[in-house]
Model the fold of this input.
Amino acid sequence: MNLILFGPPGAGKGTQGKALAERFGIPQISTGDILRENVRMNTPLGMKAKEYMERGALVPDEVVVDMVKVRISRDDCRRGFILDGFPRNVAQAEALREMLRGIGKQIDHVIGIDVPKEEIIRRLSGRRVCRGCGANYHVIYNPPSKDSVCDRCGGEIYQRDDDREETIEARLEVYRQQTLPLVDYYTRMGIYRAVDGTGSAEQITERIVGIIGQRGNNP
Ligand code: AP5
Done:
């Protein structure tokens, strides 16, 4: 099963991606996580991506498309994968279609996670992330048991640079202008389904699993 998790910043793509990856035993591919890791390691790719990410803009398509191509060709994607944060515009969607066609694959489901704007802002401004393992926390909804320390690996918990208020607005605007047109794109292909993204993370996971099951493509 090849799945795209779609939605605005803070909709819960990463949270659901991790849960579904565990449930189905296929990898979650988060372009945001891969880019952040490159920034942290100061790689040439990271140095190129950093300034775009800091202002909430999209990193140039060719950089991200090449990165995804390499990742999807790895052996662990043989049984399927979950894309989180990619594609982000029509050019990336076209590039994905081409690269999958080249290896005899296609996208089976695009699940759009719907969350009201006020809730998105609450989720993003309260999000905290572990520097060590990337685990996601929220100061109110899902705080770590010990302040600033990851429950899972003991790593330091920090606030992402792009989760500051002014950058959140810029990211939402980029989403509206460049990413939202993909709803029409995938609806026309007959593979887009929206899911209510409010409620507990577990409830949302079950809704997504229900949609995937209904469409008869459960791995
Ligand atoms: P990226 O990392 O992809 O950021 P994003 O799309 O803005 O998404 P987020 O990670 O902010 O949110 P999410 O939907 O994963 O929500 P999460 O589960 O964390 O991209 C960052 C940057 O990288 C981009 O701005 C761009 O510069 C670059 N980039 C990445 N991909 C690119 C591409 N394809 N092309 C070009 N550039 C690209 O949840 C958010 C918070 O809410 C967490 O605290 C979580 O604990 C909490 N939460 C989740 N679910 C619930 C729930 N049900 N109830 C309560 N709280 C919840």
User: Anything to note?
Assistant: The two ends are 6 Å apart (CA to CA). Residues 2-115+179-214 form a domain with the Rossmann fold fold (CATH 3.40.50.300).
